Input
Amino acid sequence: MVTYYKNVKGKLTEVTDYEPECWINCTAPDDDEKDKLIDEFGIDPDFLKSALDEEESSHIDCENGNTLIIVDIPVARKNEKSITYHTTPLGIIITDTNVITLCLRENVIIGEFAEGVVRNIYPQYKTQFVLHIILRATIKYLQYLKQIDKISDHAEHELRKSMKNKELIQLLEIEKSLVYFSSSLKANEATLEKIARGRLIKLFDEDRDLLDDVLIEVKQAIEMSNIHMNILASTMDVFASIISNNLNIVMKVLASITLLSSIPTIISGIYGMNVEYLPFTQRQYWWFPVILTGAIVAVVAYILKKKDML
Output
């Protein structure tokens, strides 16, 4: 789907057809729409292929007067029981007259621009518009990192009460999300640093100020993701040790119970054999094996209790 947006009174407004200096947004374009972009704007087909490749990493490239910028943006998916976070590439093509964005699926960052949530955005100032998109994506990273922190705290609180696989799997999913965020943010930072050199995209003073703000936000997001990763890794190690220790305690108690339960079996086995000269084998002394078994069990239980085995 291809939609066109233009600034009207300080707000991005959808227009029915292409106009110069408008923003062209393409979400999961079909073959006809791709061919139209290639024919009308002279876009390299490889640009479209890269922009719509789900595995493409963040980078910047120039060809035939057009500039392709690919940045990784955060995506949150709500399942029935939880929320998972990952990243997806967003392609931004800067032509002589327009900015074109391409993505495989709808996302909240582009949606906020299209719905007019972000004010005072002017697509005719192409570099500034691109930096605003990257800045909005970085802000969304920071928002999702705060959400991840709250989810992690909740899962940790639940694990303190009882060890369940559900919470452990949730922590594992959070750790994966943080790895995705960290690697994507570092790739975005490298792309922004290339832009900052001013060789591939012309930068004005206002653009440089905005670029500095974006870089600061990206560095902050990288630092936050690294901090959360370190805390989560330590938490996972601690809970792994707790689980292992709990298992050792259970096995220790079971071994002690097994030892105690084997004493009556041994005594009954001895007195059940037809052996001469075994003391107190007469019928009137039936109580002796019972008292002997109880005494031995009590002594062994006392020793095990002193050894903290029970």
